[in-house]
Amino acid sequence: TGIEQVEKMESPRMIKTHLPFQLVPKSFWEQDCKTIVVARNAKDSVVSYFHFNRMMENMPQPGTWQEFLQSFMDGQVSWGPWYDHVKGWWEAKEKHRILFLFYEDMKENPRREIQKVARFMGKVLEDDVLEKIVHLSSFKVMRDNPMANYSTFPSNVMDRSISRFMRKGEVGDWKTHFTVAENERFDEHYERQMAPCSVRFRQEL
């Protein structure tokens, strides 16, 4: 299990999680661990999540796009509401060592965002190392890398005939899914959900 793997790792350890802030063990903060959060705008997130649910055999079937969009807005999806997840981590960064990154910024200028991570971790990257990281962490390279694209998973876990795990990785792909009416309804709902929060996302580049 993941816990057994973590226990065998030597410090400093790196752990990846999808947990919302309130479910992270308190010991994590007591040890003053550093956290890097990557968040994506809600519209592209729901599109990506829809296709992920379509191809994942062990996930609840999403139904139609219209049905899944409503489930997303209602927070009735695995791992809970996108809104609570983002707000929780955004507010937590005021009290803990949290670097909050935006997917859209990473797509726009990966070099800049990688440098942010390096500074946060107290590292200095030589230019050649930085450029190698930019290349190897690009969507195109990761999409074709079996270590990142989950292509080694059997089809009874991930059905790649339905969708690839790494599908497009674009900013603004939501425009190919939302109707005008859905977009207007989503915007109104989003404003109500996120009104108290100062976080601001870009929905296109």
From TrEMBL:
Give the superkingdom in one word. Answer: Eukaryota
Molecular functions per Gene Ontology? sulfotransferase activity
**InterPro entries the record matches:** P-loop_NTPase, Sulfotransferase_dom
Every Sulfotransferase domain range: 2-195
Pfam family membership, one: Sulfotransfer_1
EC no. given is 2.8.2.-
Q: Which GO terms describe its cellular component?
A: cytoplasm
* Keyword set includes Cytoplasm: yes
Q: Which UniProt keywords apply?
A: Cytoplasm, Transferase
Q: Where in the cell is it found?
A: Cytoplasm
**Chief place where the protein resides:** cytoplasm
- Family assignment from sequence similarity: Belongs to the sulfotransferase 1 family.
This chain belongs to the protein called: Sulfotransferase
**Species of origin:** Chiloscyllium punctatum (Brownbanded bambooshark)
Q: What is the lineage of its organism?
A: Eukaryota, Metazoa, Chordata, Craniata, Vertebrata
